[in-house]
Write a structure and sequence with these properties.
Elements lengths: L1 H19 L16 E8 L16 H14 L3 E5 L13 E2 L2 E2 L3 H10 L3 E2 L10 H10 L3 E2 L4 E3 L11 E6 L2 E9 L8 E3 L2 H12 L5 E7 L2 H10 L5 E3 L7 E5 L4 E5 L6 E9 L7 E9 L8 H20 L7 E5 L3 E2 L2 H4 L5 H13 L5 E5 L8 E2 L2 E4 H7 L5 E8 H13 L7 E4 L1 E4 L2 E5 L2 E2 L5 E7 H5 L7 H4 L8 E4 H13 L2
Parallel strand pairs: 1-2, 2-5, 5-6, 9-11, 11-12, 12-14, 19-27
Antiparallel strand pairs: 1-15, 3-4, 7-10, 8-9, 13-14, 15-16, 17-21, 18-20, 19-23, 22-27, 22-28, 24-25, 25-26
Helix pairs in contact: 2-3, 2-7, 3-7, 9-14
Bound molecules: zinc ion.
Zinc ion binds next to loops.
Length: 498
């Protein structure tokens, strides 16, 4: 822990030194009254949950709001930004609401209360249906900035700026935003982020003192931005879900990302001293958002209200979100980086639960993309809401019978999908990776017919690389065994007690 804090402090010093040493290309600007100007930037990215995560220990927008209040009290020139990914995916967002789902309504309300200033699109904004997406834009009391995402006709989305210059005591700060083009929806079109960055830099650099790229790109592309455009002063990014701090390019342009779900936020202190040889210095610190922070009342109230609205929707769907399922004695890892690459105690329980829900089946199969919690549940109380967080889309368990050859094809493809949501979690299956597939310890027989419990989604909708299952009459849906969430609840009770 101490080492981490030291690392952050050292980084701050290092950054101040490096950035202060950068070449300054800014032209003359109006003199700031009374010496150096301090600008504080509170930076979040990839925030999906309005309430604390990790069993209540980390994150939570009411805590971020309290931190923002503190920063504002220290420096009224505090700007709050979010580097993309807000509307989706979240468990609460899947709650039935007004003939549809909440679909991000709850988090826009919480960010309005918190006082977010500027945001750029993340790829997950476009998970929403077109109508929902436009409603969320309308509800936003903060400013969307996107320089490379447009509607299907290439026009700007309503009220979305292509860049923004904010003026703080005479110091002009330019912000533009670029987003990677995954999660393509039919209502969005993209321009190349590098071409756009070049255009925006040409446009903004002569008019601004400080130039910031607010990005939602793979970090490799952020590095490429820093290498190609030393004119940028700061790259505030998102998308990776894990904090990072990099200095790249010939002027050591700093690139920052915080942890997802506001488990951490970055606080960047910018100091602009017109009189200095190197006017800009930046010192950045990663702040953990934990239960050590108080909750700001206003935001906490909005969070609680929307949580109750969401819970009400889940109740109508047959769940009691606040009811305790069990008290677990071990932590359950549902991080995407884990479940999309290997099995964990959580996936073991889930798959055993599928088998138990479908007696007589020999093995169970589920796509890892069904598991969306992207969090580790610590040992302790597990509520039905936690189960919804694990499996927000639910889906029914069905039984099927399939030939060994088809099962082999499915398992092989699942392994090829490693790292993605169509990587398969299984029960009673071992081997693969050059080893023979074993079903209940016996070599998979291509000619044998296997009785399988699977998520209906896999057989009816399919998943990337597994589309052959949908068309193949060799894997018909036989019996429905109910919602996978109910199966997990039953398994947790069996293993950890009621
Ligand atoms: Zn993303």
């Amino acid at each position: 822990m101490l080492k981490k804090i030291l690392a952050v402090l050292c980084l701050s010093c290092l950054l101040s030194a490096c950035v202060a040493g950068r070449k300054e290309t800014a032209p003359a600007v109006p003199q700031a009254a009374g010496g150096p100007v301090r600008i504080t930037i509170l930076h979040m990215n990839d925030v999906y949950e309005i309430a604390p995560v990790s069993g209540g220990k980390e994150g939570g927008l009411a805590r971020v709001a309290a931190l923002r209040d503190r920063l504002l009290a220290e420096n009224p020139n505090t700007v709050t930004v979010l580097a993309g990914d807000l509307f989706s995916p979240s468990a609460l967002g899947t709650a039935p609401y007004a003939q549809s789902r909440l679909a991000g309504r709850q988090i826009v309300a919480a960010m309005n209360a918190l006082g977010l200033d500027y945001i750029t699109f993340g790829n997950h904004e476009f998970d929403l249906k077109k109508e929902q997406f436009h409603e969320r834009l309308k509800e936003s009391q903060f400013t969307w900035i996107s320089s490379n995402c447009f509607d299907q006709d290439g026009k700007a989305f309503p009220a979305v700026l292509d860049s923004k210059i904010i003026e703080v005591q005479g110091v002009k700060v330019g912000i533009f935003g670029v987003t990677l083009n995954s999660n393509k929806a039919d209502y969005v079109s993209y321009k190349d982020p590098f071409v756009i960055a070049q255009e925006k830099i040409a446009e903004l650099r002569p008019k601004t003192d400080i130039l910031i790229a607010l990005t939602h790109l793979n970090y490799q592309d952020d590095i490429a931005l820093a290498n190609r455009f030393p004119e940028l002063d700061l790259i505030l990014g998102g998308h990776e879900h894990e904090n990072m701090q990099l200095l790249r390019g010939k002027d050591f342009t700093p690139i920052f990302k915080a942890d997802a779900n506001a488990r951490t936020v970055y606080v960047h202190e910018l100091r602009w001293d017109k009189a200095a040889a190197q006017p800009l210095s930046v010192s950045s610190r990663l702040e953990r958002v934990t239960d050590a922070l108080p909750e700001q009342e206003k935001t906490a109230k909005v969070v609680a209200e929307w949580q109750q609205i969401g819970y009400e929707g889940f109740r109508k769907a047959g769940f009691e979100p606040e009811r305790t399922v069990t008290v677990s004695t071990e932590e359950l890892d549902g991080l995407e980086a884990s479940v999309r690459n290997h099995s964990t105690r959580l996936t073991e329980l889930l798959m055993q639960g599928m088998l138990r829900a479908a007696p007589g089946t020999e093995l169970a199969i589920c796509n890892s993309g069904s598991i969306r919690i992207d969090d580790v549940l610590p040992a302790g109380r597990i509520t039905e809401y936690d189960v919804i967080r694990i499996l927000p889309f639910g889906g029914d368990i069905v039984t099927t019978k399939m030939k060994g050859s088809l099962l082999r094809k499915m398992l092989d493809q699942g392994l090829k999908n490693k790292g993605g949501g169509s990587y398969l979690q299984t029960a009673n299956v071992s081997g693969g990776n050059g080893q023979p597939w074993l079903i209940n310890g016996k070599k998979l027989n291509d000619k044998k017919i296997y009785s399988v419990a699977a998520l209906e989604y896999l057989l009816k909708v399919g998943d990337s690389g597994l589309e052959f299952l949908v068309k193949n009459p060799g894997a018909p849906v036989l019996e429905n065994k109910g919602d996978i969430r109910k199966a997990l609840i039953a398994e947790l009770k069996t293993v950890f007690g009621k």
